[in-house]
Amino acid sequence: MALDITGTRLRNQRLSRGRFETPQDVVRWLGAVQAQDYAGAKWALGLRMRRVRDTAIEAAFSDGRILRTHVMRPTWHFVAPEDIRWMLALTAPRVSAAMAPYNRRLELDAAVFRRSQRAIMRALRGGIQLTRQELKVALQRVGVHANGVQRLAHIVMQAELDAVICSGARRGNQFTYALLDERVPMVRARSRDDSVAELARRYFTSHGPAQLHDFAWWSGLSVGDARAGLATVERELAREAIGGRTYWFPSSVRTLTAPRRAYLLPLYDEYLIAYKDRRAALDPSRWTQAASRDPFSAPVVVNGEVVAGWKRIQKRDRIAISLKPLTRLDTQHRAVIGDAARAYSRFLGAELELSWS
């Protein structure tokens, strides 16, 4: 039987089978979960868990069982505490290099970062958790210019990349920062080669079938480093060539057909964002047209393929979901999509208001 790419990805990403009990188990399995859309990232974890509420994932975040920081690509990700140090050591140099031109325009250099990080460490020492605006006050107190959204954001991001700070608990709807050394126990450091191999192992096990260039895109590593990591773990994996492309995946799972289920994925869910080549699940031309009309529309997946977009509006006592089909949907498609929308409303503990356009 030919490899069913989307069906096997749904299984390995734990969307269709083998769901987890805790948020930290999901994050460990996937390696990292893109999380600049915080509400959407919590739902990405919820999709891969058994009967969980948003409040349980929020509690795990508040307690530091999952952390949010800039790692891999220049964006926020959820990571497990025991992984944050070696992942930063491996990927932060490339993220810092990517941000260097922007930092120069903002007149940020190594001397500014040293001064700012000393001030941040003093302000957070002793378990204190502060918002970005509160860190701005601490920076200005020692003469570090932090006016302007971008300059402050880059100062704080570099402190994340340098493993000085990570996420604290939210205060209302505001994010806070904490000292990484106070929030995360010290663990034995990994060698760089071991880190590259471990990241490759996590990726192809949880995201396969995937190509080498998918792994390089997801991890932010160079293609050379990605190839070296894959070479180290390739004996643990199976591979198959389809249409001139080589896919790697766990050898224990050769092919799985996507079940007749729908998923309302968040905007940056790993099922799509983790691959440079997304053609197995998404018609690029059709989705580009939909995204140009509504860039904040997230994908609806049925049988492993994107068939619609959806948007959420949180109201006082209910969640309003608007669905926009990309193709003709039959009665069964609409029924399973309705089930997926109700699953999301249960996750939030809110009444559902569903509409089709």
Keywords:
3 domains; Arc Repressor Mutant, subunit A; 15 helices; alpha+beta; 357 residues; 47% helix
Helices and strands in order:
Blueprint: H1 5-12, H2 23-30, E1 33-34, H3 38-46, H4 54-63, E2 67-70, E3 76-79, H5 81-105, H6 110-124, E4 130-131, H7 132-141, H8 149-161, E5 165-167, E6 176-179, H9 180-183, H10 192-207, H11 212-219, H12 223-233, E7 237-242, E8 245-250, E9 262-264, H13 270-273, H14 284-293, E10 298-302, E11 305-314, E12 318-325, H15 331-348, E13 351-356
Parallel strand pairs: 12-13
Antiparallel strand pairs: 1-3, 2-3, 4-6, 5-6, 7-8, 9-10, 10-11, 11-12
* Whole-number mean pLDDT: 94
**Measured distance between first and last alpha carbons:** 38 Å
How many domains, in number, for the residues? 3
Helix content: 40-55%
Number of helices: 15
Sheet with the most strands: spatial strand order: 9-10-11-12-13
Fraction in beta strands:
15-25%
What does the main sheet amount to?
Answer: 5 strands, mixed
Helix/strand/pairing category: alpha+beta
Q: What is the β-strand count?
A: 13
Succession of helices and strands:
HHEHHEEHHEHHEEHHHHEEEHHEEEHE
Sum up the overall morphology in one term. Answer: globular
Q: Write down the Rg.
A: 21 Å
Query: Regions with pLDDT < 50 over 5+ consecutive residues?
Result: none
Please tell me about this protein's structure.
This protein is α+β, with helices and mostly antiparallel strands and 357 residues long. Strand 12, helix 15 (331-348) and strand 13 (351-356) form a beta-alpha-beta unit. The two termini are 38 Å apart. The mean pLDDT is 94. The longest helix has 25 residues, at 81-105. It folds into 3 domains: 5-183, no CATH class; 192-250, Winged helix-like DNA-binding domain superfamily/Winged helix DNA-binding domain (Arc Repressor Mutant, subunit A), CATH 1.10.10; 262-356, no CATH class. It contains 15 helices and 13 strands.
